[in-house]
Amino acid sequence: MNNFFRSELNGLRPYSPGKPISDVKRELGLEEVIKLASNESPYPPFSEAMEAVSRTQNEVNRYPDGGCVELKSKLVKFLGFPESNLMIGNGSNELLRLLAQICLNPGDEVVMACPSFVVYPTVTRMMGGVCREIPLINHRHDLKNMLSAVNEGTKIVFICNPNNPTGTIVSKEEIDVFMSEIPENVMVVFDEAYFEYVDDESYPNGLDYFDEKRPIVILRTFSKIYGLTGLRIGYGIAPKTIVSAVNKIREPFNVNHLAQVAAIASLDCVDKVAERKKLTLKQKRFLYEEFDKMGLSCLKSEANFILVDLKVDSKKVFNQLLQKGVIVRTGDIFGPGYENFIRVTIGMPEENKKFIRALREVLS
Ligand SMILES: Cc1ncc(COP(=O)(O)O)c(C=O)c1O
Predict the structure, then answer these.
(1) I need a surface site. Which of 34, 48, 138, 204 has the fewest CB within 10 A?
(2) Residue whose CA is closest, atom 2 of ligand 1?
């Protein structure tokens, strides 16, 4: 099988997902396990979404609507953008890959922060692109250095706002400067997977930078606050030319039927989204206070997860937490300098209490 695979696959590693609850239960013989590892919503999908799924589940003998027509017309009203500027993906993850596939030729450069969402390097390298990873500064995107890294060979800049894994944001003021200086032919992707959780008033809305004449893309998802992670559905707003290019190469039925009906129903749940945001903020404050009492410092997060500095090797703590039925993420996966951090997703009140109890025991 020598030379069988495309050389771009060399050096790529499969995505490593958070440990599934069922594995931990089986391996450790535990009855109760909580997963605070993958930035999912701990809350179930909205009842409206579940009812829509129940009503339509017997229709899955048919292919889904390949054009996501009903969902797009709902999003037109929700976002105020025409249907021709909308693309729907099997999670925003798929859209990230499609964006790389429509424009990257071997050797093209892609600028991204480091650490940031792990999928950006993968979609870049798989196309033969070159990653220009710019270290975070104070755990935030260093937009000045990202701008300096842009050259004639740059095709895409990914801005993860809020950033995964740090939960930090870049402000409207900073993005305004960045957008005024970046060459107009470079694609800027605002990955706003955690948009609905942000509370900081300086946070920019990527949609404000939309320009039909420039390759600016805004990505959002139903996987986080809407709780439809397992159904896989996200969306993007982009100029028509980009949407058309994506439509040329995406799978004909890339978004399943149940995901579409659940997303349509979820878009009506504006008050429930606000309520969930409030609940998450309250739990975030609880966790901040508990970390503080333990003498641990953590990053101020605008998302539904927190990066905490344990000041000791997080792998050991991870394993000890696992024994107590709590799954988090170790920081080593985010690169050098993060070995002592864990990333914990904000769970339901009881889960957060269990996590804190377990962490206290492990660190004592
Ligand atoms: C920053 C960021 N972007 C995109 C995604 C992908 O989300 P999905 O494919 O579930 O829509 C995630 C998931 O964790 C994320 O953290």
Answers:
(1) 138
(2) 193
Mutate to test the pocket of ligand 1, among 164, 189, 194 (most ligand atoms within 8 A of CB): 164
Ligand 1 centre from 93 Cα, in Å? Answer: 6
- The answer to whether 235 and 92 have CB atoms below 8 angstroms apart is yes
**Cβ 86 vs Cβ 235: under 8 Å:** yes
Contact 76, 267 (CB under 8 A): no
Ligand 1-lining residues (CB < 6 angstroms): 39, 91-93, 117, 160, 164, 191, 193, 221, 223, 229, 234
Domain 7-44+270-363 has CATH 3.90.1150.10: yes
Q: Which two tokens stand for residue 282?
A: 């309250």
Closest to 235 measured CA to CA, from 84, 75, 48, 101: 75
- Whether a cis peptide bond, with omega within 30° of 0, leads into 165 is yes
Q: Which atom of ligand 1 sits closest to the CA of residue 223?
A: 10
* Topology, domain 47-266: Aspartate Aminotransferase; domain 2 (3.40.640)
Q: Ligand 1: distance of its center to the CA of 364 in Å?
A: 34
Per residue of the chain (364 residues), give pLDDT as tens.
778 999 999 989 888 777 789 999 999 999 999 999 999 999 999 999 999 999 999 999 999 999 999 999 999 999 999 999 999 999 999 999 999 999 999 999 999 999 999 999 999 999 999 999 999 999 999 999 999 999 999 999 999 999 999 999 999 999 999 999 999 999 999 999 999 999 999 999 999 999 999 999 999 999 999 999 999 999 999 999 999 999 999 999 999 999 999 999 999 999 999 999 999 999 999 999 999 999 999 999 999 999 999 999 999 999 999 999 999 999 999 999 999 999 999 999 999 999 999 999 999 9
Q: Rounded CA gap, 259 and 234, in Å?
A: 9
The H or E element spanning position 23 is helix 21-28
Domain-wise residue ranges, the chain: 7-44+270-363, 47-266
Buried b / exposed e across 14-23, counting CB within 10 Å, b at 16+?
eeeebbebee
CA of 40 to the centre of ligand 1 (A): 10
